[in-house]
Amino acid sequence: MTVEEMFERAEASMLVECMGKPCRIWTGATSKGGYPKAHIGERYVGVHRLALESRIGRALRRTELACHRCDVPACIEPAHLYVGTPADNQRDRRRRGTANPGLCRVTLTKADVRRLYL
Fold it and tell me: How many CB atoms lie within 10 A of CB 16?
């Protein structure tokens, strides 16, 4: 896929209402965390990063993230994205109560597994 094809696909993405804001949801491939990705050239790139870069007119630095104001990982709406650091992202996620949703790491005992599956 070329960058131009990726942007054409982005234009065809779904618009949905999420938390009172119209999110543009990427309908292509996503990472395990639900973030949009596209195969461009020899590598996968984050579509949300490209969307933000097109809005701000420059490439993001390696230390910068494309953070979501809407807390929807698959959203590629440029107005919902902002440049942040990992620390900014974690602080915002804690403040909004969305830090690591569904990513809780738990060690289950054999008794726990029996209770869950038997």
Answer: 13
